[in-house]
Specification:
It contains 6 helices and 5 strands; from the N terminus they run αβαβαβαβαβα. By secondary structure, it is an alpha/beta fold. The protein has a single domain, classed as Rossmann fold. The radius of gyration is 16 Å and the shape is globular. The N terminus is likely disordered.
Length: 176
């Protein structure tokens, strides 16, 4: 029960920070307002010897496991989340740290609580330049245009691990 209360408080805090009120990514019973911390421009990287940290959000457990395994096999530190709401809570918590705690976000588009596109919009609204890869099995012209507008890469499912890891290396500047 205590864990559920803590998660609810974290979700409420994030909703407050995002400026959401009635609707959007969180339940209608959360009547809070604010936004995520403003971080203009590029976020400073940790020292060059660090292992890049990637946050992955995917509601399909099996597919998330494949993505996470491919990224870990390529040498990245990976944090997993099962839906968009948990992803936003994790991002907000990590960005309270003094240096760039997230090097890349990889998110499914269609997920419970909050879509990957909503997460992307929130990150950009807060002026965070963190690279984002959106994964979808339902890509159309509007989604491609939205992803491009907000500076994200769209990968159409199914894709192989090589396509993912090559795109990750490209976005992270050939690290590791």
């Amino acid at each position: 029960m205590l864990v559920l209360i803590r998660r609810r408080r974290a979700a409420a805090e994030l909703a407050r920070r995002m400026g959401k009120r009635h609707g959007g990514c969180f339940p209608n019973d959360m009547h809070v307002e604010t936004e995520l911390p403003h971080r203009p421009g590029a976020i400073p990287r940790r020292d060059v010897s660090h292992v890049p940290r990637i946050v992955v959000a995917e509601d399909d457990d099996d597919f998330r496991e494949l993505v996470v395994e491919a990224l870990r096999a390529d040498g990245y530190e990976v944090i997993e989340e099962s839906d968009g709401g948990r992803l936003l809570v994790r991002i907000a918590a990590l960005y309270r740290q003094p240096v760039a705690p997230i090097d890349l976000i990889v998110s499914d588009v269609r997920m419970p609580v909050c879509s990957g596109l909503d997460v992307l919009k929130a990150v950009r609204k807060a002026h965070w330049s963190t690279p984002v890869i959106l994964m979808t099995g339902f890509g159309d012209g509007d989604l491609r245009a939205s992803a491009s507008h907000f500076g994200a890469v769209l990968l159409e499912k199914p894709f192989d691990a090589t396509a993912l890891t090559e795109k990750v290396r490209e976005l992270l500047g050939a690290l590791p």
